[in-house]
Design brief:
The structure holds 2 protein chains of 2 kinds. In chain A, 30% of the residues lie in helices and 26% in strands. In chain A, helix 4 packs parallel to helix 5 and helix 9 packs across helix 14. By secondary structure, chain B is an alpha+beta fold. In chain B, 32% of the residues lie in helices and 21% in strands. Among the domains of chain B are: 220 residues, no CATH class; 164 residues, no CATH class. Chain B is built from 14 helices and 20 strands. Chain B has a 7-stranded antiparallel beta sheet, sandwiched between helices. In chain B, strands 14-15-20-17-18 form a 5-stranded antiparallel beta sheet, sandwiched between helices. A 4-stranded mixed beta sheet of chain B has the order 8-9-10-11. The chains are: A alpha+beta, B alpha+beta.
């Protein structure tokens, strides 16, 4: 037997833990099992061992484990982070609580602000002051730090955040305060200072980010320690990597120091998977739609690069379509893949409002009580029930028989609660729900495309998640998109993305200056300083300096604007920084994003950024084998009657598996049933497989 | 007076569309208005757009009635209808694709005040006007007697800046260069004005494309029918809610302290009549126009009425004009809520917030579970300017905000006013840009009104002058007339303007009708009003009072004298001592408000020194 090696992906969700293996860079194996909320690491290790057992592999053959986790997000949503204290400059202990004042909804006078993660009595004011240029206005009063440390030591506080004004410009006071705290509180209290986590101007956003980091620190650190120990105990000594919200991975050690980086770990992995699969095939311009039980998430990938943002709030609930109004959560101003979320998923509840219109979501029946057809207590109709009524979903079971369905319950719930008040017949009502759900999800797609000056017709729609493939063709039709791709393993897609991920670190520093006044040598020095830290960080993660590649970016805006656009600097190392090229690149991007750009107005640079990654892409390129015969469902009925709206009515629709398309393209209508998802191919589309085993829907000429 | 015009009801000749298509069209239109709002927010140049979101976007049907509005600024809700009526009157029948119209005139064209510039474009389909895309942005400066074009001491509109009549400004999608040249020379910050105008044009262009696609998809006849139904739908939702309100006549009044050192109080009196599924808001009894810039052209009076109504109803009503049909607004001509030209109106925000307070108070008698006691009463505006190292600088900072106590929840500490979703300016950006140092920004101890549900704490911000000199103007309120409490709750805390210089402390009026000179090292501190309480303070859960003491929101003495809660050394409420203390206080409820004010003024050194001045001012 030849030597085998595995890269392992492990994605934990609230309900399921998904495990994927990439064998010898080529064959994908996957396994889904219920999560173990008492200790998520147990579910991972058991899952990995079970999959090894199934394919006859050995723990020692595992070369690397890449992990996506909701442990950070859950800690915030459930308020189960560490008891945290905050040190601030005197006069500013309420910066964290006041935030930016803005509320995310209007006309609701019973609105409640998110509760600050550190209550007022654990926010300590320290006598010290920096000026905007890093000048010391008032020296640090070390005694007041010592006093705060004493008070903290006498409490159950497990984490301390330090955020002083203008620490991005001069971190000296923060550093000294951290030294005193660490010295007095010992290594088990997690101490984090704002200039390490986010050396960026704007005191609330920086403070909030470091507070989130501290609040998560002890939780994430002990979780990753437990996971490493369990893996070692199971004979798996491979390095453990964690997916960041930005789409790159970092070592478990780095993640323990900057846990605020891994908040949207799972969704990022899914987008990365789409980018890699797209790059292996023919589509590097992609819009992804990831739809589960409660929400649908959209992201955009251009030329293989997912769009990123630093405008993020954790704990804000569903981030509805545009990012117009914030304030619903805790700001985390670190790089995130820009995901727009809508409260519409398979479990979304359907109701008829007081004015007589049908609404789908945003409230969800979730897994409990679940859609009416589950027969597990849910009586309100959901999107899943509408899909059952239309004949799109197998009326008897899903997930290979793991979940039994009762179609009669779906019909009853919709007739009683939708047909009765509106006077619509059953099929029309169900198809209406389907159309409304697709139009709601369309808003998420528009938020990442047309809202930023991108035309969705220039993109391929990549659909995954348990319910994405069921509505993808309808969303594409609404936006006039001609091509839909449903990749293999759509239900374990994030875990798949982990197999093709790359190590990536991001660093930034505020460099606030009019672009016209900039000295390019000084700017270069500032970049070099960041690059020195970057090399140190990546070397600590096991990379040789020679194999590290660094990209320089800058946040620019017209003087006076509130929002920056990030542009890449295309200079080669050693070149003088080309300011004119930066200016031109910014104007180009502004014109594309917003539809206008002044050729004469002055620009400001706000931040500089560097991204570092291994030069030779150490991750495996996506090269899957032919479709796996096991995805077929033996015994499925071959034809079902489906309703495709008033234009088409009832059509006898072949029910096939992905494998059936290996023989050649088929005309619609079709339903492609798989273990973890159902793809609906309505009239007007042709379905086929590409060389990577992706299901490809192409719009017929209309 | 009736609403400026009423949406026509969909007649029987229009075929009714199904509830599915209507929901989809409603979503599509709302998403276009949001997209417009996002383009302006992210690409405009001025801090007013960024921090105050003082702009709005809308789609209108071919009759000029709003069918969708971007989610930005509640007090702009009634801002488009009058302008649209004037556009149709003036240009109806002569419109061409690629045309665009501009105005800012409150008296001739239906605008609100001169800084708000409207840009509107017709949308064509099959050669016919089928709708409009509209945007309005508060521009930073359009000339006039003071930087920012909002001089409080203006007495007629001619002092307030450039007045742009309703004119056609775009032909074949190109702006009229002559008008741009006019704007450029009339503004103190032309690059901001032109940059913001470009953002408005881009937003309208994006919306024209989106709206055009929707029209293409459904065709004009079907769209006309659906838009008529959308108005009916919104009307139905609101009528249902009004019907559920108890019929009756509900009155409320409140005051603005007055202009300058000698100005008397300005009265706002409202009567809400609920009859069946209709509602009337009548401002008869309100003070007349004033010789200052706080008169509110009638468009703002409609806006505030609609904003208050939307807060009082629970249904998710789309922003389409049909929902205004059951509402009648009466605003006698010549009052401060419907002034005659050429009354100055640039700072009309002050009165708009007070109107909202009065309306909330009246609605609290109708739907008490949905309305809070009075909050801070709108942002205090602090303007500082000067010349530093040869360059002119100007900053206008808004300080707020605190909500009053609600039926089941405390007032919120540190939040935008329900009338305008303002943000605050980052301290670090202020210090990086201007010769100022912010020395404190936070909640004020012992502030806000006591109640079973307490009011939100007051916010303070202080500015140290680092340059050689600076000019200060202030627009604030609520010192003599405190935010009123509800159902036995105490009033909120007063606003204060304090200058510390050369070792002396001076209390300034709430709305000085002049510019004040400051020098290097001087410290200006503003304390915004605190929100009022809801319900009897002696019924507040002692544990909640103790928690506020632990958090440093209240001193122990404040808890004892205002809430009757005695806290022990362990920080917990002492139940026996508390009960005894509360029994003693119950006889003198008005005394609680006095105790509250005394503790607030004694809260720190600066304010303690002012107490005598303040008491003198009140007397």
């Amino acid at each position: 037997m030849t030597a085998r090696s595995f890269r392992v992906g492990a994605d934990i969700g609230g309900t399921f833990t998904d495990i994927t293996f990439l064998e010898n860079g080529q064959t994908v194996h996957s396994f889904k099992r219920p999560s173990t909320p008492d200790d998520y690491s147990r579910g991972i290790v058991e899952g990995v061992l079970a999959l090894l057992d199934r394919i006859g592999g050995k723990p020692t053959e595992i070369e690397e484990v890449v992990h996506a986790t909701t442990v950070a997000t859950n800690a915030i949503l459930e308020g189960k982070g560490a008891t945290t204290a905050l040190l601030t400059t005197r006069g500013f202990r309420d910066v964290l609580e006041l935030g930016r004042l803005r509320m995310p909804e209007l006309y609701n006078l019973n609105y409640e602000k998110p509760t600050p993660l550190v209550p007022r009595h654990r926010r300590y004011e320290i006598a010290e002051r920096m000026g905007a240029h890093g000048d010391i206005v008032l020296p640090l009063d070390e005694d007041s730090v010592v006093e705060a440390a004493r008070s903290i030591a006498g409490s159950d506080t497990r984490a301390v955040a330090v955020s002083f004004l203008h620490a991005y410009a001069n971190p000296q006071h923060e550093r000294r305060a951290c030294e005193i705290l660490t010295g007095m509180l010992g290594p088990e209290v997690f101490v984090s200072c704002s200039s390490d986590v986010l050396p960026e101007i704007r005191e609330y956003e920086r403070t909030s980010t470091v507070v989130v980091n501290a609040y998560l620190g002890p939780v994430v650190r002990s979780y990753l320690r437990a996971l490493s120990t369990r893996l070692r105990d199971a004979g798996i000594h491979a390095p453990l990597q964690v997916m960041q919200s930005s789409g790159g991975v970092m070592s478990a050690l780095s993640a323990s120091e900057k846990p605020a980086c891994i908040i949207e770990s799972g969704p990022a992995a899914g987008v990365i998977a789409a980018a890699r699969i797209g790059a292996a095939g023919s589509s590097s311009d992609i819009i992804t739609i990831d739809m589960g039980g409660t929400t649908a998430k959209a992201a955009i990938i251009e030329q293989g690069q997912p769009a990123r943002t630093t405008e993020y709030e954790v704990g804000a609930g569903i981030n509805i379509s545009s990012k117009l109004i914030k304030g619903g959560g805790h700001a985390v101003k670190l790089p995130f893949i820009d995901v727009s979320e809508i409260g519409a998923g398979g479990g979304s509840i359907i109701r008829v409002d007081a004015g007589g219109l049908i609404q789908v979501g945003p409230d969800s029946a979730g897994a409990v009580p679940g859609p009416a057809c589950y027969g597990t207590g849910g009586t309100r109709p959901t999107l899943t029930d509408a899909l059952v009524v239309l004949g799109y979903i197998n009326p008897d079971y899903i997930a290979g028989g793991a979940v039994r369905l009762d179609a009669e319950r779906s019909r009853r719930a919709i007739s009683e609660q939708v047909c009765a008040p509106t006077g619509l017949d059953l099929e029309t009502a169900a198809h209406g729900v389907y159309a409304i759900a697709a139009s709601t999800m369309m808003r998420a797609v528009k938020a990442v495309s047309t809202y930023r000056g991108r035309d969705p017709r220039d993109f391929t729609l990549f659909a995954f998640g348990g319910n994405g493939p069921a509505v993808a063709a309808e969303i594409a039709r609404l936006l006039d998109m001609k091509r839909v791709v449903v990749p293999s393993h759509p239900g374990v897609f994030s875990a798949l993305g982990l197999l093709y991920s790359t190590t990536e670190h991001d660093l930034m520093q505020t460099y606030f200056c009019a672009l016209d006044a900039i000295d390019s040598d000084r700017l270069d020095t500032a970049y070099r300083k960041l690059e020195t830290s970057m090399f140190a960080g990546l070397e600590a993660d096991g990379f040789a300096r020679a194999e590290i590649e660094i990209e320089r970016l800058a946040d620019l805006r017209y003087a006076g604007q509130a929002y920056e656009l990030t542009i890449g600097l295309n200079d080669r190392p050693g070149d003088r920084i080309d300011i004119a090229a930066m200016r031109a690149a910014f104007r180009r991007e502004h014109k594309q994003t917003y539809g206008h750009a002044s050729e004469s107005d002055p620009l400001e640079i706000v931040n500089i950024r560097v991204t570092g990654r291994p030069r030779s892409d150490r991750s495996d390129a996506y090269r899957p084998s032919a479709p796996d015969a096991r995805t077929g469902e033996p015994g499925s009925p071959s034809v079902r009657t489906c309703w495709f709206g008033p234009d088409w009515g009832h059509l006898e629709t072949p029910i096939i598996t992905r494998l059936d398309l290996a023989a050649g393209d088929r005309e619609s209508p079709l339903i492609v049933e798989e273990y973890d998802a159902t793809c609906v191919v309505p009239p007007g589309w042709t379905a086929g497989l590409d060389e990577l085993g992706n299901l490809v829907l192409t719009a017929s000429e209309r | 007076m009736l609403a400026p015009h009423s949406a026509p009801h969909s007649g029987p000749e229009l075929s009714r569309s199904d509830p599915v298509t209507l929901e989809i069209v409603k979503n599509a239109l709302a998403s276009i208005a949001d997209e417009m709002a996002l383009v302006i927010l992210r690409s405009a140049y001025s801090p007013i757009v960024r921090d105050s979101m003082d702009y709005s976007t809308a789609l209108c049907d071919r009759n000029g009635l709003i069918i969708a509005q971007g989610l930005t600024n509640p007090v702009h809700l009634g801002s488009f209808p009058s302008v649209m009526v004037n556009i149709l009157k003036r240009f109806g029948g002569t419109m061409q694709p690629g045309d665009g119209y501009i105005t800012n005139d409150p008296y001739g064209a239906g605008g609100m005040h001169l800084p708000d510039v409207y840009l509107v474009k017709p949308v064509f389909h099959a050669g016919q006007v089928e709708g409009f895309v509209a945007s309005l942005v508060h521009h930073t400066d359009l000339g006039g007697m003071a930087p920012g074009s909002m001089a409080l001491h203006a007495t007629e509109i001619f002092q307030e800046g450039l007045r742009i009549p309703l004119i056609k400004v775009m032909h074949e999608d190109r702006m009229d260069e002559n008008l741009l040249a006019f704007l450029e020379v009339n503004s103190r910050v032309p690059e901001q004005v032109l940059g913001d105008l470009r953002a408005q044009i881009a937003a309208c262009a994006a919306a024209e494309r989106g709206f055009g696609k929707v029209l293409e998809k459904y065709g004009a006849p079907a769209m006309r029918g659906m838009l008529a139904e959308l108005h009916d739908y919104a009307e139905r939702l609101v009528r249902d809610e009004i019907r559920a309100m108890p019929d009756g006549v509900y009155e409320a009044e409140d005051f603005i302290d007055g202009l300058g050192e000698g100005g008397g109080p300005i009265r706002f009196k409202v009567t809400i009549t609920v009859a069946g599924d209709e509602l009337e808001i009548d401002w008869t009894g309100t003070s007349g126009e004033v010789p200052g810039a706080i008169n509110g052209p009638v468009a703002i009076t409609y806006s505030v009425a609609y904003a208050a109504l939307r807060c009082a109803v629970q249904a998710a009503v789309p922003n389409c004009e049909g929902y205004t049909r059951p509402v009648r607004v009466v605003a006698p001509l010549g009052t401060i809520v419907n002034p005659r030209p050429p009354a100055a109106c640039a700072a009309r925000g002050v009165m708009a917030y007070r109107m909202l307070d009065v309306l909330f108070n009246a609605f609290a008698q109708i739907v008490p579970d949905r309305m809070p006691a009075a909050g801070e009463g709108g942002p205090s505006a602090v303007s500082l300017s000067g010349i530093h190292e040869g360059k002119t600088w100007l900053i206008t900072d808004g300080i707020l905000g605190s909500w009053g106590g609600r039926a089941t929840k405390d007032g919120v500490d540190g939040i935008a006013n329900p009338g305008a979703n303002l943000s605050n300016m980052p301290i670090e950006l202020i210090e990086a840009r201007y010769p100022l140092r912010i020395e404190s920004y936070g909640l004020v101890a012992n502030s806000g009104g006591a109640g079973r549900r307490r009011g939100g704490m007051a916010i303070t911000r202080s500015y140290r002058i680092l340059g050689d000199d600076a000019q200060l103007t202030i627009r604030s309120d609520r010192r003599a007339h405190l935010p009123p409490g509800l159902f036995g709750g105490c009033p909120g805390s007063p606003s204060l303007n304090i200058i510390d210089r050369n070792g002396t402390t001076e209390l300034l009026p709430v709305m000085p009708m002049r510019t004040l000179a400051l020098g290097k090292g001087d410290l200006f501190t503003h304390v915004a009003p605190g929100g009022a309480g809801n319900g009897d303070p002696l019924e507040r859960d002692p544990d909640h009072v103790a928690a506020d003491v632990r958090d440093g929101r209240f001193t122990r003495e404040f808890a004892r004298d205002v809430y009757g809660v005695v806290t022990g050394e362990n920080g917990r409420a002492d139940p026996i001592a508390t009960e005894a203390r509360r029994d003693g206080l119950a006889a003198d409820l008005p005394g609680l408000a006095q105790a509250q004010l005394r503790h607030f003024m004694e809260g720190d050194q600066g304010r303690a020194a002012l107490s005598p001045d303040y008491e003198e001012e009140l007397a």
